[in-house]
UniProtKB/TrEMBL annotation:
Keyword DNA-binding in annotation: yes
Organism from which the protein derives: Winogradskya humida
Protein name: TetR family transcriptional regulator
Pfam families: TetR_C_6 (PF13977), TetR_N (PF00440)
Gene3D superfamilies given in the database record: Tetracycline Repressor, domain 2 (1.10.357.10)
Statement: the UniProt record of this protein carries the keyword Phosphoprotein: no
SUPFAM superfamilies found in the cross-reference section: Homeodomain-like, Tetracyclin repressor-like, C-terminal domain
Domain HTH tetR-type: 8-68
Record key words, sorted: DNA-binding, Repressor, Transcription, Transcription regulation
InterPro entries named in the record: BetI_C, Homeodomain-like_sf, HTH-type_TetR-like_transc_reg, HTH_TetR, Tet_transcr_reg_TetR-rel_C_sf
DNA-binding annotation, residue ranges on this chain: 31-50
Amino acid sequence: MSRTADRPAQGEALSRAVWDVLADQGLDRLTVRAVAAAAGCTTGLVMHRFPNRRALLVHARELLHETTRGRVEALEAGAASPREALRAVLRQGMAIDAATARESVVWTGFLAAAVADEELLATHRQNNRAWRERVERLVAAAAPEWPGGRVASVTLGLIAMTEGMAAFGAADPVAYPVADQERMLDDALAAYGLDAGTGRRGAP
C-alpha cells in the first residue's frame, strides 16, 4: 500500500486486512505484523491506526457489529410479517454461507480474547445486549399477546440455539450443513409457536 494512497482507501484496506487475518488465520495470528502483510503495507502504517492487538480486536468486533446491523435492518424492512422478520434475522446469524461463517469465526475469536480482558468484554457485552434487545423486540412483535417473561425466555432460547449453530456450522460445515441449521431454526420456531407458516402460537 503506497504512503501516497488516500486515507479512506488506506483505512478500507487495513479494515479488510484485520478482518481477513482474524477470520482466516485465527486469534493467535492476529498481530500488527500479520495485518501489515495482509494489507501490503508497513507495520508503522498499521500501528498509526491500531497501536496494539487490543485495538485490532476492537476494530474487528466493530466491523462485525456494523455489518450485521446493516444486514438485519434491511431484512426487517423487507419482511412481510413480524414472524418472517424474526426468522430472517435469526437465520442470518447462523453460518449459512461463506460470509456468515467467517463472521462467526471473528465473533468466536473476539469472545475468546475478551474472557481475559475487561475492556474487550465490555465491548462484547454492549454489542451482545443490543442483539438480545433486537431479537426480544422481534419476538414481542411476533407474539404480542405474550407476557414479558415469556418473551424474554423464548428470546434466550432462540439466541442460544442460533449462536450455537453458528459456531458449530463455521467450525464443521460437514457435520452441521446449512440445511440442518435451517431445519433446527424452523423446528425451534415451530416449537415456540412462532413459525411463519401457521397462525398458531405457543401458550404463554
